[in-house]
């Protein structure tokens, strides 16, 4: 027996001696691990569906907030602001329908929730515009959370679908911040509110509002 054969036999004996100490997953353990992974994946997808449904509700809620604001402005002789908010209300509803359309194409289980009744009265235009800005911020946060979950589960179709909405939220918040600043400046510059109302009327007319 040459030296190489002896070394091979020694190595084999050492492996056999330590074999009981090596923990290998049994078929049952492997199946259990796979089941756990599948269940975890299923829960993640359920959470994505839940958040997707929630976003539909948020878009509809935002539409109601803008619509209520439009009614209030019309009642307070702020026709330009009323038209602007009516356009925004329609746009938010279109967003909700876009989510529903995409969800059906992707076999996402969408469950509509009740839409909370919006405020119907405000003390000042500033209070109204402040509420609208907060509504948009809430919508932005909701979209960001939905996007993070979509990224986590690797649903790139949902992630891609959400991209235009993220950019639109940036524009919406910036627009409302500018309007709110002008509304607040009315205290220092009387007549600015009416000027802003005229500007928004022209803007709405230019966009078919």
UniProtKB/TrEMBL annotation:
High-level lineage: Eukaryota, Sar, Stramenopiles, Ochrophyta, Bacillariophyta
Gene Ontology biological process terms from the UniProt entry: intracellular iron ion homeostasis; iron ion transport
Function: Stores iron in a soluble, non-toxic, readily available form. Important for iron homeostasis. Iron is taken up in the ferrous form and deposited as ferric hydroxides after oxidation.
Signal peptide: 1-17
EC number(s) on file: 1.16.3.1
InterPro entries recorded: Ferritin, Ferritin-like, Ferritin-like_diiron, Ferritin-like_SF, Ferritin_DPS_dom, Ferritin_prok
PANTHER family registered for this protein in UniProt: BACTERIAL NON-HEME FERRITIN, FERRITIN
Listed Gene3D superfamilies: 1.20.1260.10
Entry keyword Metal-binding: yes
Organism domain of life: Eukaryota
This protein's name: Ferritin
GO CC, one annotated term: cytoplasm
Family classification: Belongs to the ferritin family.
Domain Ferritin-like diiron: 42-187
Keywords: Iron, Iron storage, Metal-binding, Oxidoreductase, Signal
């Amino acid at each position: 027996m040459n030296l190489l054969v002896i070394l091979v036999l020694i190595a084999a004996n050492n492996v056999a001696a330590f074999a009981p100490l090596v923990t290998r997953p049994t078929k049952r353990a492997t199946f259990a691990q796979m089941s756990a992974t599948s269940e975890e994946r299923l829960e993640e997808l359920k959470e994505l569906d839940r958040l997707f449904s929630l976003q539909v509700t948020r878009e509809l809620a935002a539409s109601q907030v803008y619509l209520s604001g439009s009614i209030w402005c019309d009642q307070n002789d702020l026709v330009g602001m009323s038209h602007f908010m009516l356009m925004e209300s329609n746009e938010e509803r279109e967003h909700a329908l876009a989510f529903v359309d995409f969800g059906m194409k992707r076999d996402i289980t969408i469950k509509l929730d009740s839409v909370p009744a919006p405020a119907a009265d405000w003390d000042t235009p500033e209070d109204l515009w402040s509420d609208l800005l907060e509504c948009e911020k809430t919508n932005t946060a909701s979209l960001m959370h939905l996007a993070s979950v979509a990224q986590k589960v690797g649903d790139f179709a949902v992630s891609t679908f959400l991209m235009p909405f993220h950019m639109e939220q940036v524009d919406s918040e910036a627009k409302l911040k500018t309007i709110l600043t002008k509304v607040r400046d009315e205290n220092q510059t009387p007549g600015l509110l009416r000027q802003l109302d005229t500007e928004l009327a022209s803007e709405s007319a230019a966009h078919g509002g």
